[in-house]
């Protein structure tokens, strides 16, 4: 819905950039975990997710009047991804790499899902759900539940979390 709003209004006003960026970082992290583990489902889902989030970032950048802060945030994300790749590829031995990356991905995902709690506080204070997207809430619940079940099926605690 945010992308549609950007394309219709040709403006990024009232649309936050950080969710696009953090979701892209999350997809890239899980893509790395999937590649390391050799899990085709993780690879496919997160490759598509990262491609879509990168597209959203490019559209946001195109319509953003202040391109410098957006580019700086993207460059910061790239620096974090490259640093993370270097850490996991060079500094962590092969046996513990999957464990460290899985733990990182789980913590990052939890943090990403906790950030909308600020909206929940606003809902409680205002006693109105106008700022919440019901379809997004349901979709997030279904997707999270699906990943939990998939993680349980694989006996992978990081995916389960």
TrEMBL record:
One of its GO terms (molecular function) is sugar transmembrane transporter activity. It is a multi-pass membrane protein. The keyword Lipoprotein does not apply. GO terms for cellular component: Golgi membrane; plasma membrane. It is found in: Cell membrane; Golgi apparatus membrane. Keywords: Cell membrane, Golgi apparatus, Membrane, Repeat, Sugar transport, Transmembrane, Transmembrane helix, Transport. The chain crosses the membrane at residues 43-63, 70-92, 98-120, 132-152. Pfam families: MtN3_slv. Belongs to the SWEET sugar transporter family. Mediates sugar transport across membranes. This is Sugar transporter SWEET1. The lineage of its organism: Eukaryota, Metazoa, Chordata, Craniata, Vertebrata.
């Amino acid at each position: 819905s945010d992308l549609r709003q950007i394309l219709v209004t040709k403006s990024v006003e009232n649309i936050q950039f950080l969710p696009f960026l953090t979701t892209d970082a999350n997809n890239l992290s899980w893509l790395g975990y999937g590649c390391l583990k050799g899990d085709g489902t993780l690879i496919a889902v997160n490759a598509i997710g990262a491609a879509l989030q990168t597209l959203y970032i490019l559209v946001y950048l195109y319509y953003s009047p202040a391109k410098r802060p957006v580019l700086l945030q993207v460059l910061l994300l790239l620096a974090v991804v490259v640093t993370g790749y270097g850490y996991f590829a060079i500094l962590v031995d092969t046996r513990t790499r999957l464990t460290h990356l899985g733990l990182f991905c789980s913590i990052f995902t939890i943090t990403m899902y906790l950030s909308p709690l600020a909206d929940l506080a606003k809902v409680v204070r205002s006693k109105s759900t106008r700022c919440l997207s019901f379809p997004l809430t349901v979709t997030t619940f279904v997707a999270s539940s699906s990943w939990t079940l998939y993680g349980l099926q694989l006996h992978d605690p990081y995916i389960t979390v």
